Amino acid sequence: MNFNLIPLKNQDVAIFKKDMQEAFQESALREFNDLDVEILPEKDIDKSLSTKGSVAYKAIVDGKIVGGAIVVIDELTQHNHLDFLYVKVGTQSKGVGQMIWDEIERLYPQTNIWETCTPYFEKRNVHFYINRLGFHAVEFFNPHHKDTSIPDDMIGGDYFFRFEKVMKR
Q1: pLDDT, tens digit (0-9, with 9 covering 90-100), for 23-70
Q2: How far apart, in whole angstroms, are the C-alpha atoms of residue 51 and residue 30?
Q3: pTM
Q4: By three-state DSSP, how is residue 4 classified?
């Protein structure tokens, strides 16, 4: 498998967003069969892409986009955030997510802490972040402990895990 993680180019943004939205939608449909709402609105991706320190990457295998990620890098604190990581529908369970993450870690060796979050119902994500990537669940958001940065209308928005990975050098 010929894998590369390269910065997202303007001409790839539309397909990147579409593939990411499909991956998130497909994942939610596994949990909620009769889902008729959009899980990841384009405005949420745009917000991430426009955040200060944001860098987007596309994952390429054998010349085709198979996933990607958006990270937010804080050069001062090196407390960095993984906003989104996705693997294209039909490409999951082939090691692509692991390759994306391994390359991100290689690209940012000065990182002290990585942080990310995922909805409670994303069992595959919880497994991936904890068991595959070495993150630790450090906070659970719920109606009694809300994350005010999560929109009220987001499906599962009241129930999220926050993960951290402290990097060892």
Answers
A1: 988 877 777 777 667 678 899 999 999 999 999 999 999 999 999 999
A2: 30
A3: 0.89
A4: strand
